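Good morning,

Attaching, inline, the backbone tokens for the sequence recovery test we're adding to the shared suite. The designed sequence is right after.
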């Protein structure tokens, strides 16, 4: 790669513009920007064999649309570009989105004047995420189980030319999982809500709520109430493996704790 980071990943990258460093980092995928339009972010995503590409695209699109239209998540404009793989092995998928200017939600610091409105925004945001997972537990089907990632999947910011900051879903390389309305699926879902051993402050939706409360010295009552009600419903209607009942009760008590 040249010093300006503008060389292609490989010869057949399907863009007229070079892909350059974007300023974003990801654990697995490579996140670039178009040199001709730095407001367009390109997520260099997975490789697919031809027979699996269309099913993946249909599932991915449906999950994104449900998050946006059903639960009010702000999702940047998205195009999917398909090109050949590095060695003509299947296809490479590129997810092209608008750049969102602002910090990750985890790193956002609110001024005293901003905090009352921000608290309401955060409460509504986490309540919507909780409702999303609650509906998945009752309806089943494909869903994104990767939303709660230490508040790093979302950006507090705006697109170029806009005047209002919002919470944006920045990671559109959706990890799609099928919920089968059985105990194992509910156990997996509970692991997305709470996994105390994952890191220094845990992992999952509840830990993301608690982190934002500690950081900003606030209490997100609506999200807490929603999570406690979700756990009540799950404990009542199940199905749950015996070892997951304890986790559901822990989440319920944590959400209700004064």
């Amino acid at each position: 790669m040249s010093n300006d980071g503008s060389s292609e990943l490989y010869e057949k990258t399907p863009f007229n513009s070079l892909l350059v460093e974007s300023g974003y980092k990801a654990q697995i995928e490579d996140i670039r920007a178009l040199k001709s339009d730095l407001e367009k972010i390109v997520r260099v995503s997975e490789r697919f064999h031809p027979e699996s590409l269309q099913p993946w695209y249909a599932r991915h699109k449906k999950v994104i649309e449900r998050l946006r239209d059903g639960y009010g998540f702000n999702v940047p404009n998205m195009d999917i570009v398909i090109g050949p793989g590095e060695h003509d092995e299947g296809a490479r998928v590129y997810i092209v989105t608008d750049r969102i200017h602002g910090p990750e939600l985890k790193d956002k610091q609110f001024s005293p004047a901003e905090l009352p409105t921000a608290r309401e925004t955060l409460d509504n945001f986490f309540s919507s995420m909780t409702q999303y997972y609650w509906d998945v537990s009752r309806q089943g089907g494909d869903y994104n189980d990767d939303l709660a990632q230490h508040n790093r999947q979302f950006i507090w910011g705006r697109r170029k030319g806009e005047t209002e900051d919002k919470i944006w879903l920045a990671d559109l390389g959706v990890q799609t999982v099928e919920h089968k309305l059985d105990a194992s699926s509910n156990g997996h879902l509970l692991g997305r809500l709470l996994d105390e051993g994952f890191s220094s402050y845990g992992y999952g939706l509840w830990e993301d709520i608690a982190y934002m409360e500690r950081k900003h010295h606030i209490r997100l009552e609506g999200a807490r109430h929603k999570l406690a009600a979700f756990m009540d419903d799950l404990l009542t209607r199940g199905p749950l493996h015996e070892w997951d009942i304890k986790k559901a009760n822990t989440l319920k008590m944590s959400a209700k704790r004064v």
